[in-house]
Design a protein that fits this description.
14 strands, two-stranded antiparallel sheet, Glucose Permease (Domain IIA), 2 helices, alpha+beta, rod-shaped
């Protein structure tokens, strides 16, 4: 077998034919070289497109990661806002509870003394568990985020905060309801002087000025000039305005909750039965009617018909 190939070149206009002898081995080397170049180019093209696809995927993942971090930061901020709101509600509830001195056992609103720094609905350490579970990773921008885990943590924390907020809301509603009841009670509780003057006889056993015997004096005697205004010490409804034996001209006001106030020895009336009165409203004037030794107001406070010491209900 010949070791050469002869390549004949025939020109178009020349009769001379050129012959070129090519060794057989060169043909094999050429084929191998072309195949190698083709394989190398193919590998480079595949690698290039693979790198481009990987870069595109990385860019997409990076954009999604940035978007997820942004959403997480926004959610983190929202959680902190909700937490702050819950804590403000808790502090408000504590203040409201302290102001109203809650002891409504029917709705489990009573509260015992707290340890220093401790708040209701907390453990002994006095700390709300309000830390954001994945918040510490927010500043590590180069680390990948497990979106499924983050979503579960966010959902669990938001559900926890929602439950806590509902409890606080209900607690504040109970406090508000109780506070309204207390405010009504305070508005209808006698708490100011019914007339200005000087006390000539206090609540308790005393010597009767007419008989000289020791008798129970059921109220306060407040002396003053005839015509001195007599004021209602709280809201209520007038249930009596007429002359009543030794009390003379008398006004009786029902304040609700079993509380009544009585005003005796009046000069005249400024109200009549069934009238609604407010604290500070004029109901009559100091006089000397009935069994009296001089111009004064006889003032009584009765709880379910039992006379009480009026001084215990006067705050000013």
């Amino acid at each position: 077998m010949s070791r050469f190939f002869t390549l004949m070149i025939v020109p178009d206009r020349s009769s001379q034919v050129r012959r070129v002898r090519i060794p057989r081995a060169w043909i094999g080397y050429t084929i191998v070289g072309i195949a190698s170049v083709f394989a190398l180019v193919s590998f480079m093209l595949i690698h290039y497109f693979g790198m481009m696809q990987q870069m595109t995927e990385n860019r997409r993942l990076r954009e999604e990661n940035i978007e997820l971090r942004t959403q997480m930061k926004a959610t983190h901020a929202k959680i902190e806002e909700i937490t702050d709101t819950v804590e403000r509600v808790d502090r408000f509830a504590m203040k409201l509870q302290a102001i109203t001195q809650l002891s409504d056992t029917g709705r489990s609103l009573a509260m015992g003394p707290l340890q220093p720094g401790e708040r209701p609905d907390e453990g002994p350490s006095g700390q709300h568990e309000v830390k954001f579970a994945v918040g510490e990773a927010d500043d590590r921008e180069d680390e990948p985020i497990d979106s499924a885990l983050s979503a579960r943590l966010l959902e669990a924390r938001l559900q926890e905060l929602a439950t806590e907020a509902q409890k606080k809301e209900q607690r504040v509603r109970d406090l508000e309801e109780y506070s309204l009841e207390q405010r009504t009670l305070l508005a209808t509780t006698p708490s100011v002087w019914p007339a200005r003057g000087w006390v000539t006889s206090t609540f308790g056993v005393r010597v009767d000025p007419y008989t000289g015997g020791r008798v129970m004096h059921k109220g306060l005697d407040i002396a003053g000039p005839v015509g001195t205004q007599v004021l209602s010490p709280a809201e209520g409804v007038v249930i009596y305005a007429a002359t009543r034996g030794g009390y003379g001209k008398t006004v009786v006001i029902d304040h609700g909750y079993g509380v009544q106030t009585h005003y005796g020895h009046l000069l005249e009336f400024a109200v009549q039965a069934a009238d609604k009165v407010s604290r500070g409203q004029v109901i009559g004037s100091v006089g000397n009617s009935g069994r009296s030794t001089g111009p004064h107001l006889h003032y009584e406070v009765r709880i379910r018909g039992i006379p009480q010491n009026p001084r215990e209900y006067i705050l000013d």
